[in-house]
Amino acid sequence: MNLEAVNAFWKETLDELATVPMEAEVELSDPGGVMHEAVKTFQNHAVRFRSFEGKTIRAWYTVPIGVPPAGGWPAIVTAPGYFGIQSLSMHYVRHGYAVLAVYPRGQGESSAEWELEERTKVTWHLEDRYRYYYRGAFADLVRGVDFLCSREEVDKGRIGTWGMSQGGGFALAIASLDRRIRAASSEVAWPLHFRVSAEIETAPYGELCAYLREHPERRDAIMENLEYFDAYNLVRNITCPVLVNAVVIDEVHPYRTIMPVFERIPTMKSVVVYPDIEHGTRADFARHTLDWLDRYLR
């Protein structure tokens, strides 16, 4: 796929996003702060803002208690796994980061604002890149960066991203699409490298595999459409340092889909490979991520 065509599509998308006023609503949910180990360490805020196509998106915004450093807190934007579940990243907040946990359209708490009419996220309007689910969803994360940049307590020059599973795919996408991202960490990422992953039958790639099997006459058009959303193409635009992990025996988001994408990242990068652990998050990788973000955002 011609990268110029991919970039033109995303420029058009983000130009359209820029015409939508954010109209953010921020509600402090615990004015007294949240206790951790007998110390009030952070505050949570429920957030709603408008995004691409005027959709309302929900998020949680968590900041450390105390006076921000000169210039503001470094910040992280993150997204959930495929089933819309994410824990708030208190680990990073306790180490002095403001964290925006975005629920893209139709996922998690944002499902209260809008839901898919049919199919699944990976197959919704699969034949039309202008209506495909991940066009709006990726734009929702860019709008999350807009939100962080609007906050006076955040240092706009120190924004990073982290995510696991689908969230890891979002981390690679937002680092590719938004140069305000200065560091990224992606854990067992999905969705990506569709030319390979379209043959995988385990969930959630299995939704795509089954759809292509049911509609063989649409396969060529669908695969061309997916090129616009594939990190295999998008990561060539990344300008920030990127940390990635992969698991050799993971058949949910396989090593063979992640490593070819990693190899195409043109910037400072590092990969942690786990040989014999199933799909899931890893406590030691959270430490690696924190060290990576501290190195490039502090």
Structural class: alpha/beta
| Domains (count) | 1
Q: What percentage of amino acids are in beta strands?
A: 15-25%
Could you describe the largest sheet, including whether it forms a barrel? 10 strands, mixed
The count of DSSP E runs of length 2 or more, i.e. the number of strands, is 10
> Quick check: average pLDDT?
93
Shape: globular
What does this structure look like?
The protein has 298 residues and is of the alpha/beta class. The chain has one domain (3-118, 136-193, 234-297): Alpha/Beta hydrolase fold, catalytic domain (Rossmann fold, 3-Layer(aba) Sandwich). It is built from ten helices and ten strands. It has helices at 3-18, 90-93, 133-149, 166-177, 194-197, 205-214, 219-226, 231-234, 255-264, 283-297, and strands spanning 25-28, 34-36, 39-50, 56-64, 73-78, 98-103, 154-164, 181-187, 242-247, 269-274. Strands 1, 2, 3, 4, 5, 6, 7, 8, 9 and 10 form a ten-stranded mixed β-sheet that branches. The longest helix is centred in the middle third of the chain and has 17 residues, at 133-149.
